[in-house]
Specification:
globular; about 80 residues; single chain; 3 strands; 3-stranded antiparallel sheet; PqqD family protein
Length: about 80
């Protein structure tokens, strides 16, 4: 099930190219490396659907979408736990 990010969450690209997520509600920041940045962008382009994001990334890397989907779901789950 797709779930859009919290409206209090802002994303910005830092000068070093890394994505930074900031929750105005909690005051927490998270800096994403290349892997997290790729997942965030794919999720955003895929209307926050992990399946669509996994298909996009897998096609680019030439790997099985199921392995990417597991990574995306774990990554999203981490942020949901932190936000609660």
């Amino acid at each position: 099930m797709a779930r859009r990010p919290d409206h209090e969450l802002t994303a910005s690209v830092r000068p070093d190219g890394y994505l930074e997520l900031f929750s105005r509600r909690t005051g927490k920041r998270h800096r994403c490396g290349p892997r997290g940045t790729t997942m965030w962008l794919a999720l955003q382009r895929g209307d926050w659907q992990p399946e669509s994001a996994a298909d996009e990334i897998a096609a680019r890397l030439g790997v099985d979408p199921d392995s990417i989907r597991c990574d995306i779901e774990a990554w999203v789950s981490h942020f949901r736990e932190v936000a609660e």
